[in-house]
Amino acid sequence: MSERNLQEGHHRSPTNGECKVPTQEPNAQPSWWRDCLYWLVTFEARETRKSNYSSMPKVVNYNFFLGGRLRAVSGTEPLSLFVLIALLAPMVLYSIFEAQALWRLGRGHGALVILFYYFWAICLVSFIKTATSDPGVLPRNVHVPIVGEEFQLPRSYYNIITLPSAHPEGKTVDVKYCATCRIWRPPRASHCSTCEACVLTHDHHCTWVNNCIGQRNYRYFLTFLASCCLATTLCIVGCGIRVAQATRPDRVVVAILLIIYCALGLCYPLLLLVYHMFLTSTQQTTREYLKHVPSKTAIRQALSSPNANPFEKGNRIKNMISLICQRRGVSVMSARESHSAGDWRFVSLPQPHSFEKV
Amino acid sequence: MNSALTSSNSKHVVPDDSDQPKALFFNYHEFSVTDYAEIGKECSEHEEELALCITHFPNTYAPLDSIRFKQTRIVRIPRRYEDNLDWPVFCTLLPGHEPAALVNQDGSLQFVPYGFYENQIYGLSSVSPLSSYLSPEEFKDIVETVNMYLRQGYDPNTWRNIISATFDVLTFNLWNCLMIRLVSSPLLKLENYVETLNKSKLFKNKNIRLISPRRSGFLSVC
């Protein structure tokens, strides 16, 4: 009986209405330019291709570019494009109107220009890395317990498992099963419903970069914030010097504009940077912070670790290093590798029945 | 036992209860079933005390319609968090040897078949068929080697990592691009170790295979 169920399950899973299965390929072979375009922008899965990036759109909510080298979440507002333009615009204005004048001043002002371009370049590169790289997506369907009965889950898989941890005071760590991805998630991994994937050491989903912030891109995210603050500060200083030396304000309109723009552009990244510095020093991710914070003591929550935090090392510097410098490791769901036919990672299994809360 | 229905994230503050039993480690991949067929009997419902312990699982690394799927099973070794929380560490004990494992009535640590569930044979304890293939010492050696590579690949608290991260930031990520080409990552060395192990006599003769940890997302061994 269970064997028959297995066969039924086998027949049912590719055609279940809940699965994201692409339509049949047309009989004619796609031409080379269509292949080129597909390699450039991959927004739907193709059964005939064996690269991971051609099958991943079946299970995760990403579009891939340049053969899986870059990625962006699909179906969301493209705020990251707006941020990209907001990054490029001041650099262009600065280059056209301010850079040469500052350079000519000599006596160290050239260093100001160089430093601005340097930090701006770091900001741009880290923004692109944050927005387009793998945040630490975990593979699906690694821990499927039962194949029969439409891949249902045993009751114990719905529990949160409490396990002993390395914390010297005996604090415990919680492990939870993700019913969507069908994996036992490590602590701090979390499922993002926008990206439709479980992400390692999930911090938050950032709409401004249109990507999750997780283990593999957290350092780029912090670099982006820090370099943005530095570049805007240097821009304000450089333009301020120009304004101070100008005889008439109408000669330095762009400089004044840039000062205002950079002052506004400094606020949010600086706030976020300070917030993350406090969070990392108290060994919390954004997700953990939001989970534990009652609204009255929001600031206090950022300054001290929650009581039950098993990751706390008792030392702010050690906490910061373990989070800021967390190792990227290797991509475990790499978009550029290939897979064989029937790979479970790219199959959407039927959703398990949910329990009603009574 | 915590349930996902009663939220552990509720704002209600639970007073610290020092009388609560200490958390013990167990293999959370395993689960129990009570409707199964004892060997030689028909499928029927059994009591909780005689629940069959599911210790091996479908091979999710082989296509569903393949022969390999039908002929092989997976034993999952869970991650353990008592050593540290910064890098993945796998349990070095065979399933059934963990502190909170279900034990055989006679206390032995052998796989004792008892019943069928979904056409597969299981026992009443947490001991899996893997115990018939590898001794605890062999198993521990293998997993400790895997853990060593994982520490080298994921430990953030080394000067090398901090300096490398700093250089990476200052050189527009070119440092990382260079390093991955010049220096072999311990995690890729781990893949080589697993390949060598799978080709070794120990594994070939017993017809067992260790699944690439990278393929399983470092979530479990096998």
Describe this structure in words.
The complex is a heterodimer of chains A (358) and B (222). Chain A has a domain of 45 residues. Chain A is 45% helix and 10% strand. In chain A, β5 and β6 form a beta hairpin. Chain A starts with a helix and ends in a 34-residue tail after the last helix. In chain A, 41% of the residues are buried. The N terminus of chain A is likely disordered. Chain B has one domain. Helix content of chain B is 29%, strand content 10%. Chain B has 6 helices and 8 strands. In chain B, the strands form 3 sheets. A 4-stranded antiparallel beta sheet of chain B has the order 3-2-7-8, with no helix packed on it. The two termini of chain B are 27 Å apart. Classes of the chains: A mainly alpha (358), B alpha+beta (222). Chains A and B meet through α1, α5, β4, β5 and β6 of A and β1, β5 and α3 of B. Chain B: Belongs to the ERF4 family. Chain B: Interacts with ERF2. Chain B: InterPro entries: Golgin_A_7/ERF4, Ras_palmitoyltransferase. Chain B: It is found in: Endoplasmic reticulum membrane. Chain B: One of its GO terms (biological process) is protein targeting to membrane.
